[in-house]
Target: STAS domain-containing protein
Amino acid sequence: MDATSRTDSVPVKVDPDTSTVWLYGQATGARKALVTQHLAALLSEGRDDITVDLTGATGLSNALLDVFAAIACLMEPPRRLIVHAPASLGIAQRLSARLPKPDSPSLALRLTVLER
Model:
């Protein structure tokens, strides 16, 4: 399934077979509802891992970081949200700054950030 905003600024692709959501370009808060909907649908399927692939993203809003953390908190280990992202987005550092306890064992088991 493909979706684009009215301005075609941030394409979103979803593959339910692999439980993967891809975001491209500037991933802004305008995508928050759509990304949340896709992640919630994948979460309800009960798969162990859900992957968010940001390797094609050039920017990421804090609103979407909050969505990733919220979805991860809903997952019971061994289920987890895996985020693939370019190091230039600084996701791990940004999560540390935004979350009250980003290094808590509970969240660390549920949210994995793989930066390249």
Notes: DSSP finds four helices and six strands in the chain. The beta strands are 2-3, 12-15, 20-27, 49-60, 80-85, 111-115.
